[in-house]
Amino acid sequence: MSLHADHPVLASYGWDPQWAAEFAPYAERGLVPGRVLRVDRGRCDLVTPDGTVHADTEYVVPRDPMKVICTGDWAAVDPADRDPRYVQAYLPRRTAFVRSTSSKRSEGQILAANVDHAIIAVSLAAELDLGRIERFLALAWESGAQPLVVLTKADLVPDPVTLSYLVSDVETSAPGVQVLPVSAHDGDGTDVLRAVVADGTSVLLGQSGAGKSTLANALLGADLMDVQAVRDMDGKGRHTTTTRNLFALPGGGVLIDTPGLRGVGLYDAEAGVGQVFSEIQELARDCRFQDCAHTVEPGCAVLVALADGTLHQRRLDSYRKLLRENQRLAARTDARLQSEMRKVWKQRGAQGRAALEAKRGRLM
């Protein structure tokens, strides 16, 4: 009997032989596999071979926010004869989309797990912010997923020449990434997008008002996501999606819809930044000095490209900005880890001294 025949419900959610092999030790304990559909206030919904179940996440809520169970995880949950049911563990993630939290602790927040495609929705109802697109792309590349930029509300740009210029601008900022103009209203571009998302798991990302919920409804073939009007004054919308939800698509594939992201902080994304600015990385290989900062150094190939117009100043400025931000975050993270280690060693030292005093007391 084939694996998918054993788990017909899970097959449409991405279950495969590799997941089954990793889950084998949990199966021996009588636990049930399930994929997390959403997490909310200490509980989560999972799709299992028996359908959708609700389970408590008490055992998978560690202090490290990067290890908290999230939408897209494959988990081991108690069997149906237990009440209440608990998520006992989750399988190692293949990929994870992570951003920096807004707190001063410089911690990462995982938004979605086990994702193959990162769909970055950008509205054409507002002026393009290429720097923000590059920021999303850096996190997408770092996650291990393949990015795709979807320019939503393309029907608001009826002139094909203007639309082609906008697509070209984004393509310049997204080397190696497909840029797809889509109109959920007219249906233009949705067939191409459906073909992409039919293969694997996709996460839908973007700011509030980017048209994510409308796009999700078009892919799902039903109005499952609420849609609100965008403010005319600034082109921004309200958070119509408040939790991260996972859906099986009717044409195949899985979609994770996320709330609008106002802040997109980098988190350990140096490789992702390098991927977004691959042309600068390529130029840097020809610099005279290996540690060239591309500012005033002689023999700098990046500055030569800047001078002859091969490289645009905006791209270099954005590259420098994201690298600085990532380096600052890394420095704060290192300092936090060192502080926590000092506390641990201090605590262990105090425990050791107490144990030694107790031993001396017994000998006297």
What's the helix and strand layout?
Layout: H1 3-6, H2 8-11, H3 17-28, E1 32-40, E2 43-48, E3 51-56, E4 74-77, E5 87-90, E6 96-100, E7 108-113, E8 117-123, H4 130-143, E9 146-152, H5 160-173, E10 178-181, H6 190-197, E11 201-205, H7 212-220, E12 245-248, E13 254-257, H8 270-276, H9 278-284, H10 301-307, H11 313-363
Parallel strand pairs: 8-9, 8-11, 9-10, 11-13
Antiparallel strand pairs: 1-2, 1-4, 2-3, 4-5, 6-7, 12-13
Quick description:
With 364 residues, the chain is an alpha/beta fold. Helix content is 38%, strand content 20%.
Care to describe what's here?
With 364 residues, the chain is α/β, with parallel strands linked by helices. Helix content is 38%, strand content 20%. The chain has helices spanning 3-6, 8-11, 17-28, 130-143, 160-173, 190-197, 212-220, 270-276, 278-284, 301-307, 313-363; strands at residues 32-40, 43-48, 51-56, 74-77, 87-90, 96-100, 108-113, 117-123, 146-152, 178-181, 201-205, 245-248, 254-257. The strands form 3 sheets. Strands 10-9-8-11-13-12 form a 6-stranded mixed beta sheet, sandwiched between helices. The protein is globular. The chain starts with a helix and ends with a helix. The model is unreliable at 1-5 and 228-241 (pLDDT under 50).
